[in-house]
């Protein structure tokens, strides 16, 4: 049963979101309501139908319990409960007095909303209803309409206008364009108030790896705010702007859908979408950071932005493209970030082997794989650099810089990039 109710102001959970949701009406999802994955049952929608909560089928044929933009053909997902454990057809989500609970067809619990217990946590809290709000926030409430859980507190990779990111919270990028599992990048506001983009220690997520863009490292950030006018900023405890991440001022914000997402390629992007059908054109990028992800990320351990043995080139669309060098082929043709394998028999290291005649180089202008080197020579001519790599069975690529620097590199190659700033030549070894 769906009831239309006015949300009272005391459900406000933070000073920033209070104003915007206080005056909203919402459709109440009542206790005992449920949805089945793959069923024809309609999702739970917000009053304006802009957002919906329910099951979304993904590439693999399984389902995510998700929130999505419901009035655009793309059905863009903004949150999901079970990104790392997609469930099969027939799985069920049910609103009970204990919580919102997702179970698979065998009845095994896959996920449940962890309720805020508050200060008087000795008493068990009881859910009375739930609602999909027009902001894109899904909330569970008690009988007094106090919020017990909300999706805005547990973001996946996306922030919506009026949503905030508190200390200790993060956005984790999807693994790839079509795989929503937690991936290799994080936008993290630490308990210490530092805000940065990091690579993760995928697939563990125990620690953050390399920080590749810092917004605040003085330990003073209190929360990240994405406001209605399209600004994304780090605020202090009074809500004052400390660091502008995307200082947008969209004047016609009511005509747009907006989202900020940390995408699978490590770039934080602000997208807008015109609501008017006449100007239909899908999502377009309003702002993004870092400017050049290919040169921004350098990992001491790990492959860098692209997978091992590939190199990253920023396209005209400002998106990174991961390219396999000659002699190498993609590990997963459906995921260009998966890396590349050597597509030829390796050079023999056996003593007296004449194998080296079987090998030669392809020349790549302005390509380098920083940190993969195991030898460095100075003041040598380019011909010497090629020869010293050719006769060395361990050498996969020689990098030469005008002026006489020569580096020998070994596989797997990491942090590969092609950029004018590289200013070196790569001689990549291939089998003739
Ligand atoms: C998505 O990526 C994760 C992490 O690599 C992997 O475990 C999972 O099998 C992938 N899912 C699909 C449907 O390919
Ligand atoms: C690398 O980039 C430079 C400059 O953009 C270009 O001239 C060069 O051809 C590129 N190299 C490869 C291998 O694409």
Automatic annotation (TrEMBL):
| SUPFAM superfamilies named among the record's database cross-references | alpha-D-mannose-specific plant lectins
Tell me where on the tree of life, at the top rank, the source sits.
Eukaryota
UniProt xrefs under Gene3D superfamilies: Bulb-type lectin domain
Domain annotation Bulb-type lectin: ranges: 20-153
Q: Does the keyword Lyase apply?
A: no
One Pfam family name is B_lectin
Q: Where is the signal peptide?
A: 1-23
Record key words, sorted: Glycoprotein, Signal
The answer, when asked if Cytoplasm is one of the entry's keywords, is no
What PANTHER family does its record include?
A: G-TYPE LECTIN S-RECEPTOR-LIKE SERINE/THREONINE-PROTEIN KINASE SD2-5 (PTHR47976), G-TYPE LECTIN S-RECEPTOR-LIKE SERINE_THREONINE-PROTEIN KINASE LECRK1 (PTHR47976:SF108)
Q: What is the protein name given in its UniProt record?
A: Bulb-type lectin domain-containing protein
> Which species is listed as the source?
Chenopodium quinoa
């Amino acid at each position: 049963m769906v009831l239309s109710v006015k949300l009272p102001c005391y459900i406000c959970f933070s000073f920033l979101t209070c104003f915007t949701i206080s005056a909203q009406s919402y459709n109440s999802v009542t206790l005992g309501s449920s949805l089945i994955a793959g069923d024809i049952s309609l999702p739970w929608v917000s009053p304006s139908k802009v957002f919906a909560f329910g099951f979304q089928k993904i590439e693999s044929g399984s389902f995510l319990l998700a929130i999505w933009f419901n009035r655009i053909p793309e059905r863009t997902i903004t949150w999901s409960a079970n990104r790392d454990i997609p469930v099969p057809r027939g799985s069920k989500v049910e609103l009970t007095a204990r919580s919102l609970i997702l179970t698979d067809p065998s009845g095994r619990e896959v996920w449940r909303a962890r309720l805020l217990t508050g200060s008087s946590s000795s008493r068990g809290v009881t859910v009375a209803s739930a609602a999909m709000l027009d902001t894109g926030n899904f909330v569970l409430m008690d009988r007094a309409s106090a919020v017990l859980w909300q999706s805005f507190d547990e973001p996946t990779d996306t922030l919506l206008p009026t949503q905030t990111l508190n200390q200790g919270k993060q956005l984790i990028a999807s693994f790839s364009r079509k795989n929503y599992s937690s991936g290799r990048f994080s936008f993290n506001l630490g308990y210490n108030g530092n805000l940065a983009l990091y690579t993760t220690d995928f697939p563990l997520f125990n620690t953050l790896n390399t920080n590749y863009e810092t917004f605040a490292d003085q330990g003073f950030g209190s929360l990240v705010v994405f406001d209605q006018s399209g600004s994304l900023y780090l605020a202090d405890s009074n809500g004052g702007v400390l660091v502008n991440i995307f200082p947008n001022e969209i004047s016609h914000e009511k005509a747009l859908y907006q989202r900020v997402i940390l995408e699978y390629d490590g770039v934080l992007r602000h997208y807008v979408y015109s609501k008017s059908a006449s100007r239909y054109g899908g999502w377009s990028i309003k702002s993004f950071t870092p400017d050049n992800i290919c040169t921004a990320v350098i990992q001491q351990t790990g492959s860098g932005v692209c997978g091992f043995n590939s190199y990253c080139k920023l396209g005209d669309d400002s998106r990174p493209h991961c390219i396999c060098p000659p002699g190498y082929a993609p590990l997963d043709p459906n995921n260009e970030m998966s890396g590349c394998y050597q597509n030829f028999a390796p050079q023999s290291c056996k003593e007296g082997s004449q194998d080296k005649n079987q090998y030669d180089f392809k020349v790549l202008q302005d390509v380098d794989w920083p940190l993969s080197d195991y030898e460095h020579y100075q003041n040598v001519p380019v011909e010497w650099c090629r020869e010293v790599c050719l006769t060395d069975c361990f050498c996969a690529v020689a990098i030469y810089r005008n002026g006489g620097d020569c580096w020998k590199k070994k596989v797997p190659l990491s942090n590969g990039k092609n950029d004018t700033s590289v200013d070196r030549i790569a001689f990549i070894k291939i089998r003739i």
